[in-house]
Design a protein that fits this description.
This protein is α/β, with parallel strands linked by helices. The protein has 16 helices and 14 strands. The protein is 46% helix and 16% strand. α2 packs antiparallel against α3 and α4 packs across α7. The protein is globular and about 85 Å long.
Length: 431
Amino acid sequence: MEIIRYDNENGKKLAERLLNRSKQEQGNYQEIVDGILKEVKTRGNTAVFEYTKKFDGFNVNDDNFIVKKEEIKEAYGLVDDKLVSVMKKAAERISAYHKKQKLNSWFEPDEKGEILGQLIRPLEKVGVYVPGGKAAYPSSVLMNIIPAKVAGVKKIVMTTPAGRDGKIPPNTLVAADIAGADIIFKVGGAQAIAALAYGTESVPAVDKIVGPGNIFVALAKRSVYGFVNIDSVAGPSEILVVADETADHVFVSADLISQAEHDELASAILITTSEKLADGVNKEIYKQAEKLERKGIILSSLENYGGIVLVSDIEEACDLANKIAPEHLELSVKEPFSLLKYIKNAGAIFMGHYSPEPLGDYMAGPNHVLPTGGTARFFSPLSIDDYIKKSSLISFSKEALFDLGEDIMSFAESEGLTGHANSIKVRLDRG
């Protein structure tokens, strides 16, 4: 990997390179997506079945569209018992963490007769999109569904593409059952997003769609936003490690590789004050990559979007980290909690030498669905908040309204909204 010394210009170039890596050429993708959305909206199941056969080779119909209980039972028999236990343990930890995020409705009366408050209600129906093929990750099934269950969502509709034989990876089905999916449809791509957004004869229209996908899924989610809500449009994965001389070059190399193996566009960056660590990582990381199954993907990611940055002090490291606003930030330093006062932008922060990023992907409990592409400047991890809605509550007595009546009319009249003012005036006039 390239080793550079940090200054404002180098830092700016590095941040721009990382933030631009996920800007794929959309070409005619959007036109294709728009056509699929229109067809599914107008022709429902028929269009969904046609596109599924065309793109996935699965001859889907009314009888095999929905995953049956027998298929889930069969999946349990195909998954190693130890893995089932591990997924259940992960589910318990994820649930426990997200229960701590729950908000309660509140009301606040005063002596004048005002009652102000906020009602918290779960969404009625949520659609969870789960990719298929090489991108089928049961951990993401848990992370997307469990917070919805904790929030109290009444119906969780999952869609995922099946193979040509109509089969879904058994790990995915077991994870969905453990998490609590209410119904699973064998459909993927833009047609799945359209079905969730608009509804079909079989698929209920939902209030929100969550979950990652390919370029067609991402564009479809973006297109239906406003008709339904969405979580975000996810970009390539990224990790940034801030390290001092106490960091272990073997640990750091392994952690950088853990994200580089996702795909060629993934980013793995080390920012350090130690030249010795930088040199050690630059040698060790290639030794480890040689032994791994995804060697080609790892090396491509490291060469194109990896890097080692030498800084003069840890504060400078944190400054660059804030500019990049990484999805995953590891503070591999002697006193990680001392750096929190400097960190402003990060999806998830991993503290110390024994809190590696994969801990968060699987077992820690916090959600691993995180903002990418610099959006940690204004986005947060997937949470309970993504599955609830809030309503403001306002209740005034006659006396309380009269106390503010003249002020309201003055404000309304200053905006030229005399109808607003009149709504108050008629009440004041009646005494």
